[in-house]
Task: structure prediction
Amino acid sequence: MKFVPTINQISSTNQSTGFKMAINAKSFSILTSGIYQNKIKAVIREYSTNALESHIQARNEQPFEVHLPTKNECYFYVRDYGVGLTDEEFENVFCTFFQSSKDNTNDLGGCLGLGAKVGHSYNTKSYIVESWKNGYHYIYNCFIGDSGIPERSQLLKEYSQDPEGVKIQIAVDKDDIDEFKETAEEVYKWFSLKPKFIGEQLEIKNPIIEKHKNYITTNDIRCCNAIMGNIAYPIYHNYALDKYKDIINSRICLYFNIGDISFNPSRESLEYSDRTLANLKKRFELVIEEIKISIENQIKNSNSEWEAICRFNVITKTYNNIQNITKYINKLNYNNKELDVEKIKLQCKYFPGYSNCKSQNYVYLSKNHRYVINDLKIGSLCRCKELSKNHVVYLIDKEDLKNIDITYTDDCFVYASTLPK
Result:
């Protein structure tokens, strides 16, 4: 992914000098381990996305391979059949912090030059890297040295006719076997190309319930996620996104092109830069507009404006996992007329079912509610109270019907005289 730094232009008449960075065990520990909260997930995510992107570079549409740890084979590895690494590339890119071969293109997701070193974050602190390229097979041991600084040593260089690519293998603590499996399923469910499992098999369930133009619905997340480069990033509350907090609390995912949004160095969360916030807002608005058009298409065959609003309020109650969608769509276009969907002005008696009736000057329209015309001199209240045991009920005097400013049909109402005594 193209790296876009945030630069502030500041002028000063005073002489300035640059900051420095100490290269020691502390700085390396922060970069290899300190930035990751979930180290097992980081290992699986970083090496697997690297493998998938190597296949993209090599134009290999076949899946990369993954070995999950078991009691008898207690190690995790990722083997790709992509572009591979020469000895020089291993030295200058794989082993060099902040050096990346992907920071000038948005065809690939990496850019920081940190993910390849994630193996140092796991408990074992060491891992084996094998590479096949240009007819050679290399094996390296990567480990934390006595000084606390990451080191590597070449174990083998030999001629080989095996397919080009890279294999990274990490020994796994037996107590972590189940967590590796559970985390692998969580990571790989968002991959466009699922890996081929060697040995222990893992069934990756499709998390998508329904796919739409600007979003998907799913039950596999707790809040809205942004998916970019096969990684799902939870979207958390941010003051700049307060308008969309109900969408953020919904179980939907938004797909972004690589480079549209920025992530933190760990790739565990988003960086809420101005560009990220602008693109999130733009996508939220596209989701709202898409839903509005979809709902209007569903209610366009209604027989009246009253029925259209009733159907709208039923549809939007739990629309595609999105909470409180009427907060964003409070006007409805029906037959080229804009309707207020929240409530209409009308004198009535309101029977909520859980308490006594009360007078109010508006009604909420819904297919699940009952609207009763008072055509009796006495007895209407008792009949409506009985009906309110199963429905929200509004009792409307006959002469007040003329105050309704939207179209309706007779079947929108029932007469009190027709209700059981």
The chain has a mean pLDDT of 87. Helices lie at 25-34, 39-58, 87-94, 177-188, 245-248, 274-299, 305-315, 380-387. The chain is about 25% helix and 25% strand.
